[in-house]
Amino acid sequence: MGINRQLQQFQRAYQDDVLQTKVLGASPVELIVLLYEGAIEALEQAQKAIGDGNIPLKGKMVNKASDIIEGLRAALDFERGGDLSPRLNELYVFANQQISLGHITNDASVLQQVIDLLRELLSGWQQLARDESARRGQGIPHA
């Protein structure tokens, strides 16, 4: 086994351990942040795969992003979510439709539109995570 392959395996194992540590210590809001980051990363990898002509990798990454978004959609709480849950539901449905379009047409720009949408939503969740963390630091219980 070559040194590069060994280093790649070590890096993957390290990343898996880091992710597992983040997930185990995360609040629900922080988990949502991690999921958004994962979907964005998968779509960026799919874009690169389109550019490289790597169709199998593109398919894998598009499916990963779509699965994450569908998981976020399935986790919506329509009883407690007020007006936000139906709006997020519509955005998630739209995002998955666009991902499918980008996948079918090999159009990285369509995937970029989804990345931009997810980054916009991510910034809101990151702010919630910061606010939650600040409340915990001050000993204020969750709302």
UniProtKB/TrEMBL annotation:
Annotated family: Belongs to the FliS family.
Subcellular location: Cytoplasm, Cytosol
NCBIfam families recorded: fliS
Pfam families: FliS
SUPFAM superfamilies: Flagellar export chaperone FliS
InterPro entries: FliS, FliS_sf
Source lineage: Bacteria, Pseudomonadati, Pseudomonadota, Betaproteobacteria, Neisseriales
GO annotation, cellular component aspect: cytosol
Superkingdom field: Bacteria
UniProt keyword terms in alphabetical order: Bacterial flagellum biogenesis, Cell projection, Chaperone, Cilium, Cytoplasm, Flagellum
Listed name of the protein: Flagellar secretion chaperone FliS
GO biological process, one term: bacterial-type flagellum assembly
